[in-house]
Recover the amino acids of this structure.
């Protein structure tokens, strides 16, 4: 007897039977006989699989392909296509609640493999409003350990051992920062948490404050004990109301339990935290602008040095760290600096939280060890680029970062490697781009953001970025010249050298990095007046192929600006003056008659 | 609760909370955890939470606790909920609309069958 090659498990639960499972099974067995497959394909009936509203259903093993809503007709097709030709029949596959096709719904997403959660260890696990649940997950044990058993110098030593660097963008060694703040002379010192997360696409700080607020309270208290501060501020942007609400609750309960306020844990150490709400200026994420804003001044950066550790809030020594940096502190104290340093690579220790966005299947927050490659992050955890498109580049670090082209996708993610490629890890925003994205347009997007958010204090950033944007606008409209390209580069380099704060010093990065890696695209826009990705509106037209158009009127009905005209059964036409290139007609045309062209 | 003064106090809370969390599984048979981060709420987690509470009370199910948590990262499949019953492996479901919540309650809570097409993760986070 020949060995069984496939096993088909067909659901014979009550719901599937009433939906026609018996006739499906008969048809399946008859078709198998017809193709003499009955000996190598085993059909097994099982009890209810649970997806009753999709019935009748079956799963073909060994692949585990899940077919839904079967009838006696389509099951024949599955035998012919799947079993005989080895091709999955897409049209009968399970489609998820949002319509995406999943071949194997029973299998969990590979999203969680390869993740190591330190900063986000409690997210989705504890009730953010319950201090007891936080304690049950070893919360406030680090604070107790520090206050009862560790000297400030010992805390700093562990932090140095851990190799933790600032997760807000600049990547300054945290242990060193704490040491400076501790050593600074001053009767009054402050501790600040920077929760003014503003990079487009990054939202890990919000998630931590919403999902595990006590970790930040605990870490700030540890910081205060270490550097000798009695007063702390958390600067949260007003756009995060839920984070503010949950953090306020965490402060109240921490005070009730004696983790904040006077005589913490029965000792003579006292510390409390106040919330300051930012009005939504991107520049206030820059530490000295943030300090000005807390003081009630205009949110503009100060000249550094002196650094906040020497002269910060109200001229006093101030320790300022980002939310994600703080979230790493309690585990480092509990498990030791060496434990943390085992993750990651030389120079970039521990894990980093990334916000995956753009053209990637699994968008969301992931925490991975440093040194993982971009490929692993995008293709394995992120599930790759959707719709079979080709990966083109990844933008990291938001408006201060740059694009990494596909050819460098095997680069490990560390502070240093990304710097070599002309970008930064930044706060961890990661925007994936496919072949349909125009790199000039991407650069323009980020520059529009910087121009909008420049505080206006120094000329290079205020005027320089504006001039750069004007040039980019000319280029995307087909009005650019070769001289413009040179000017763009020169201006960018000047702005980086002469701006006052980190934002201005990095603002031209998105432009310069795309020019470096996608020079041909810039040239195509300037010399040929062509947008290779067919994205730039002024350089792209939507056309109807008169040969293919059957005059079904679907495109004319969906066009929001009535740019398409034509009578039934006659080829239609598009008025390029009215057309906004929204692409709605492309999606509805079933005859492949409509396409985008760039001359 | 008085102020915490020592490691022993802290250990007591940890142990009693861990016991409580277990207790919830014995006196309450299990629990449903709804992820209520901004992403979840934007995707409709509030409606899902309300639907779960309504369906449970409608069906007279009193041995299941409903609690909330933050975002665990997979914002793309929000609203997400986690179902824990007794010592069974916890199951996280994605895209849980009120209708899907009803399916999960009918099948998983009442009949103990995992709703396989909505699963995004099994086991501890």
């Amino acid at each position: 007897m020949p060995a069984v090659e496939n096993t088909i498990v067909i659901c014979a639960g009550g719901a599937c039977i009433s939906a026609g499972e018996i006739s499906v099974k008969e048809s399946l067995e008859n078709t198998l006989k017809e193709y003499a497959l009955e000996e190598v394909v085993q059909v097994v009936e099982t009890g209810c699989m649970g997806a009753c509203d999709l019935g009748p259903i079956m799963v073909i093993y060994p692949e585990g392909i899940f077919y839904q809503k079967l009838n006696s007709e389509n099951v024949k097709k599955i035998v012919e296509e799947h079993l005989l030709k080895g091709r999955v029949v897409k049209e009968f596959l399970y489609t998820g609640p949002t319509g995406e096709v999943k071949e194997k719904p029973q299998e969990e997403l590979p999203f969680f493999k390869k993740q190591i959660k330190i900063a986000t260890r409690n997210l989705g696990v504890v009730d953010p409003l319950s201090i007891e649940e936080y304690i049950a997950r070893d919360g406030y044990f680090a604070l107790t350990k520090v206050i009862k058993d560790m000297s400030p110098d010992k805390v700093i030593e562990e932090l140095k051992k851990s190799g933790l660097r600032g997760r807000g963008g600049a990547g300054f060694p945290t242990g060193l920062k704490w040491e400076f703040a501790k050593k600074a002379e001053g009767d009054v010192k402050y501790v600040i948490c920077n929760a003014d997360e503003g990079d487009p696409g990054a939202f890990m700080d919000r998630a931590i404050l919403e999902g595990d607020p006590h970790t930040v309270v605990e870490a700030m208290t540890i910081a205060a004990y270490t550097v000798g501060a009695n007063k702390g501020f958390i600067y949260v942007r007003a756009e995060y109301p839920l984070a503010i609400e949950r953090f306020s609750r965490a402060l109240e309960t921490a005070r009730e339990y004696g983790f904040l306020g006077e005589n913490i844990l029965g000792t003579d150490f006292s510390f409390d935290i106040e919330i300051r709400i930012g009005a939504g200026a991107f520049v206030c994420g820059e530490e000295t602008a943030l300090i000005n804003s807390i003081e009630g001044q205009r949110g503009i950066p100060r000249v550094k040095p002196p650094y906040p550790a020497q002269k910060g809030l109200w001229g006093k020594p101030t320790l300022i760290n980002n939310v994600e940096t703080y979230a790493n502190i309690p585990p480092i104290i509990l498990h030791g600096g060496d434990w943390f340093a085992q993750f990651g690579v030389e120079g970039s220790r521990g894990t980093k939280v990334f916000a995956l966005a753009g053209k990637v299947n699994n968008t969301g927050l992931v925490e991975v060890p440093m040194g993982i490659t971009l490929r692993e992050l995008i293709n394995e955890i992120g599930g790759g680029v959707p719709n079979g498109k080709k990966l083109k580049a990844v933008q990291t670090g938001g408006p201060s970062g740059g694009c990494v082209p596909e050819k460098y996708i095997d680069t490990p993610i560390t502070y240093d490697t990304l710097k070599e490629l002309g970008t930064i890890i930044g706060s961890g925003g990661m925007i994936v781009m496919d072949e349909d994205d125009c790199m000039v347009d991407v650069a323009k997007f980020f520059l529009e953001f910087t121009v909008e958010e420049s505080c206006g204090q120094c000329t290079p950033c205020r005027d320089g970025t504006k001039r750069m944007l004007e040039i980019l606008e000319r280029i995307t409209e087909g009005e650019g010249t070769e001289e413009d390209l040179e000017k763009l580069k020169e201006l960018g380099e000047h702005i980086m050298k002469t701006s006052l704060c980190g934002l201005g010093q990095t603002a031209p990065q998105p432009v310069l990095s795309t020019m470096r890696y996608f020079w041909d695209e810039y040239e195509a826009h300037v010399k040929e007046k062509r947008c290779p990705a067919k994205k730039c509106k002024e350089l792209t037209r939507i056309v109807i192929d008169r040969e293919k158009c059957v005059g079904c009127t679907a495109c004319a009905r969906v066009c929001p600006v009535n740019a398409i005209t034509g009578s039934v059964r006659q080829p239609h036409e598009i008025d390029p003056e009215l057309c906004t290139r929204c692409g709605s007609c492309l999606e509805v045309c079933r005859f492949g008659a409509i396409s985008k062209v760039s001359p | 609760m008085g102020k915490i003064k020592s490691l022993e106090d802290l250990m007591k809370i940890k142990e009693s909370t861990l016991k409580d969390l277990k207790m919830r599984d014995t006196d309450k048979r299990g629990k449903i955890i709804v992820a209520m981060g901004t992403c979840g709420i934007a995707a409709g987690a509030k409606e899902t939470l309300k639907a779960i509470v309504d369906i449970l009370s409608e069906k007279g199910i009193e041995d299941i606790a409903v609690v909330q948590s933050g975002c665990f990262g997979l914002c793309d499949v929000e609203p997400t909920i986690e179902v824990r019953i007794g010592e069974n492996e916890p199951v996280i479901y994605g895209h849980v609309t009120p209708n899907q919540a009803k399916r999960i309650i009918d099948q998983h809570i009442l009949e103990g069958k995992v709703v396989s097409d909505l699963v995004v993760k099994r086991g501890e986070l």
